[in-house]
Design brief:
This protein is about 30% helix and about 15% strand. It is α/β, with parallel strands linked by helices. A 9-stranded mixed beta sheet has the order 1-2-3-7-4-8-9-10-11, sandwiched between helices. It has a two-stranded parallel ribbon with strand order 5-6. α2 links the parallel β8 and β9. The N terminus is likely disordered.
Length: about 400
């Protein structure tokens, strides 16, 4: 394995919070890999690295699709690694997140941290005590190998990128930690797609995982969740600019299809109560939705348009497809004797938290998970915001995390 950052020893992992590493950028490829690139907010070789560091883990064997060579993982860290490497907390990001859990927007980071307020000195993930790691997921578009990465032939993976599962993504994260000299994690924490990886970590990791904190997630993708995903996938693939997934050299991106996918998804992330309360039947400012010609928008339509525009400026459509299909694959019981048998063998202390108004991953899925785990604490977040409550209700989430990390294990 090859480490690509400032230093080639453990000392780089002991940098205090707030210091900025100066990692060596991965070598930029030339020719077709950089040709015709639109400004889509994705990270590509040669871009500013920001706070990222990199580890090359080599070839991985995928659960269902052969092997994937030359895998590189982008990750960020906060805090100081203890001499015994026993204070590690792994944070798992959701579908359109990345390794930038906290920190400002800037060169290399198209958006500020997605979980501000949770990581830092004195916070729930107290970096005076914990060494916090977050990696961009396999198949993502912010530095870890994915469709927008160069394949061994120097061209983008694009439509050739293989099908990956949640288990494949966890396997890559396990290889990352081994490469960093870490054999055990004090906790793995994630929400939504990150929660899928957190519970999969608990199943795959055996006694190497002390705690798992699963927020607004599930142990298996349901038919309802897969059904909501299908029109999102079709919207992207039906966009004329998708070009069968090989759009990187065209100078265009399937932003219309990705924007529609985001609109569909965002409705599932929020609640009927919130949308009705915030927008009602109000018109978008300065527009008339009842005008027969050149019809304006309702305010809620403008809201969805805004979120679509935000995503298309920072995320790759191929990655959206790869990660959504990985979420559809999620089932910790697959080839393990079923859900009950798989969860029965989990050694970790588990905290299972739902959002009371979540209509995408409703509380009964968390009830099921907690009931089947040998050692589980059931928690709940109260929020009008629905699924996104795990990102918005920071104080409540911080309390859940503090309680989980404060419980003795072993």
């Amino acid at each position: 394995m090859t480490v690509t950052h400032r230093h080639q020893s453990l000392t780089h992992r002991a940098r205090p919070v707030g210091t900025r590493p100066v990692p060596t950028p991965p070598t930029a490829r030339v020719g077709r890999v950089r040709a015709g690139r639109p400004d889509d907010g994705t990270w590509r070789a040669g871009d500013p690295v920001g706070e990222r560091e990199f580890l090359d883990i080599g070839t991985i064997r995928l659960e269902r699709a052969g092997v994937l060579p030359q895998v590189r993982v982008a990750y960020e860290t906060w805090g100081t690694l203890a001499p015994g490497a026993d204070n590690v907390v792994l944070v798992e990001h959701a579908l359109t997140g990345d390794s930038h859990v906290v920190g400002p927007q800037g060169p290399g980071h198209p958006t500020p941290g997605w979980w501000e307020g949770l990581v830092g000195p004195g916070r729930a993930l107290d970096t005076n005590r914990w060494f916090v790691i977050c990696a961009n997921v396999l198949g993502g578009c912010q530095g870890t190998t994915g469709p927008v990465s160069p394949a061994p032939d120097g061209r983008y993976w694009a439509a050739r990128f293989p099908y990956v599962t949640i288990r494949d993504q966890v396997q890559v994260e396990q290889a990352l930690l081994r490469g960093l000299g870490i054999r055990r994690v004090a906790a793995v924490i994630g929400g939504s797609m990150g929660g899928m990886r957190a519970i999969e970590w608990a199943v795959m990791g055996g006694d190497l995982v002390e705690r798992a904190i699963v927020l607004a997630s599930t142990a298996h993708a349901t038919a309802d969740q897969i059904a909501w995903a299908q029109p999102q996938l079709l919207a992207i693939r039906s966009d004329v600019d998708f070009a069968g997934g090989d759009y990187y050299d065209t100078g265009r991106t399937p932003e219309n299809g990705l924007g529609i996918a985001r609109r569909i998804a965002h409705i599932t992330y929020r609640t009927e109560t919130e949308l009705n309360g915030r927008f009602g039947r109000d018109a978008q400012s300065g527009e008339d939705p009842l005008r027969p010609a050149a019809r304006g928008r309702f305010a809620v339509e403008g809201y969805l348009d805004h979120h679509a525009s935000k995503l298309t400026g920072r995320f790759d459509a191929n990655s959206y497809l790869v990660l959504t299909e990985a979420m559809n694959s999620h089932d910790v019981g697959r080839d393990r004797g079923g859900l009950a048998e798989a969860l029965r063998g989990v050694a970790a202390d588990c905290t299972i938290a739902s959002v009371d108004t979540d209509r995408l991953y409703p509380p009964p899925l968390s009830d099921e998970m907690a009931r089947l785990l040998p050692n589980a604490t059931r928690e709940s977040v109260t929020s009008v915001h629905g699924h996104d409550g795990f990102l918005i209700e920071t104080d409540q989430v911080a309390g859940i995390v503090r309680r989980a990390l404060g419980r003795p294990v072993g």
